[in-house]
Design brief:
About 85% of the residues lie in helices and about 0% in strands. The chain is an all-alpha fold. The model has no long low-confidence stretch (mean pLDDT about 80). Keywords: Membrane, Transmembrane, Transmembrane helix.
Length: about 230
Amino acid sequence: MKNQKRNLVISTMFQQAGDATGIALGWGLGIVLIIDLLGLIVSRNLASFLVSLQALPDIASSILNILLMALFLVTPYTDFKWAIQNGISRKTLWQGRILSLFLMTLVVWFIAQLVDLMNTPFDLASAWHSLLWYFGLSLTMMAIGNGFALLNRRWKWIVGIGLPMACLVLLMMLAYSLVGLIPTLSASGVFKSIIISNVTGWVILVIYLIIVYALARFFNNKIQLRRD
């Protein structure tokens, strides 16, 4: 029974994603195609029009990337209300949504790789790094979306505007404070070895993914029905 409800969450999310994809691709590619056709009518340059058509796969891939991020950013509260109405627990909802995130990310990443093969040869290291970026961004959007699902409309505006500004100020303060430390750190052989080590980047990535995953799950477990 639990697996059936989890699979129901996954199938419902894929249905939502499919509907949104159809609309987004229809509008996005349709507008681009109309613009290209108008350019053809004005310039009567068929070669230029055919070249512009070759960019449609790249545009479609970009639309899918944006849609993937937007889906997990804006749907958490709607999914939660739907789960409550269908007797689905937060735990099962979380399992379904996180599995959907991984599966959808793989699909979008795979399509992006196929599109890239039209222009560049396949590179395993580049593909692996891009897959990690896709998962990291998707998981980040889920954590942000789950966090915003805890807030009413007023606090969404406050946090949505105030938090980026606060982060920007903190980053500027951090950068300013590091200016004085850079000469000292640069003189340290240990610091140099840490910076240039390939392990450092992987450690930072793993720590970041663990933190974002924990935040996404914590926010998921705290979502409540509210009155906006």
